[in-house]
Amino acid sequence: MSGKSVIEYLLSRDRLITGSAIAAIFLIAAVYTVLGVGMPMSALKMTTMSGAVPGALEGQSLHAAGMLMPAVWSTTYAMLVFLMWWIMMIAMMLPSVAPTVLLYGALIRRGNESEDASRYALYFVFGYLFAWALFSLLATIAQWLLELRGLVSPSTMTLTSHLIAGGVLVLAGIYQFTPWKHACLEHCRTPLQFLTERRRSGPNGALLMGLEHGTFCLGCCWVLMALLLVGGIMNLYWIAGLTFFVVVEKLVKHGDKISYVAGVLMAGTGTYLLVSAG
């Protein structure tokens, strides 16, 4: 085997290691999310329940139907809810960030730290996921407060008020048109400039780069993740739909234009809910 062939083999193996690690993390997170580990019911059951509620209640409120049970938020339960949010975010966001991680690994291979490319790529992933851990902590606190005030059903993990749900949809639709959204989206769609200009050396540098990239990604997608409160936090249809939309928005050629179309649809649906609730 020639010297060039050996290098090509090592590089391809390096990419395979990084890609396989990302795939393994994604699969573990996806299975955890579907099974709803530690939660009162699995995501499969929650999805069925969420879909059955409107028809089953025949227009009644969740309060009137007795579906809104008092939330018991122990420390253990709060930790389980945090893990539910964080691992769900991992499953939802990894598919869209995987190309950036592989690109980062490729850039590392061209420098003086080429032997550590796979390891640094995983540090980058951990930094990225830490940003979503912070979001998950805030989401857990928000869910707790909303449940205590009867605004989110503990049974279906959805907003109990069409008025608030409509407001969230309108907010999400408007946010699609803001400069903050598109600055973050542009960063996520073209990460090469960030990876080259903000490159830091060593494992700590990889962690910080991942955290910074995750912060941009969070700025792009946090309102979209809030839509889980509308459709059901553990509703697999909404989880899959939002995951697909995030991938399209970030990776498809005209994803930025699709973002505008989605904004109109979300704002329109939200307005309809607000009018019907009034």
What would your notes on this structure say?
By secondary structure, the protein is mainly alpha-helical. The chain has one domain (3-277). The protein has 11 helices and no strands. It has helices at 3-35, 43-57, 75-109, 117-148, 162-175, 179-189, 192-197, 202-226, 228-231, 236-251, 255-277. Helix 4 runs parallel beside helix 8 (202-226) and helix 5 (162-175) packs antiparallel against helix 11. The longest helix is centred in the N-terminal third of the chain and has 35 residues, at 75-109. The radius of gyration is 21 Å and the shape is globular. The termini are far apart. Mean pLDDT is 84; it is low at 6-10 and 52-68.
Number of helices: 11
Low-confidence stretches: 6-10, 52-68
- How far do the termini sit from each other? 74 Å
Q: Which percent range fits the helix content? A: over 70%
Helix-strand category? mainly alpha
What portion of the residues fall into strands of 2 or more residues?
under 5%
The global form is: globular
Number of structurally distinct domains: 1
CA radius of gyration is 21 Å
**What's the total count of β strands?**
0
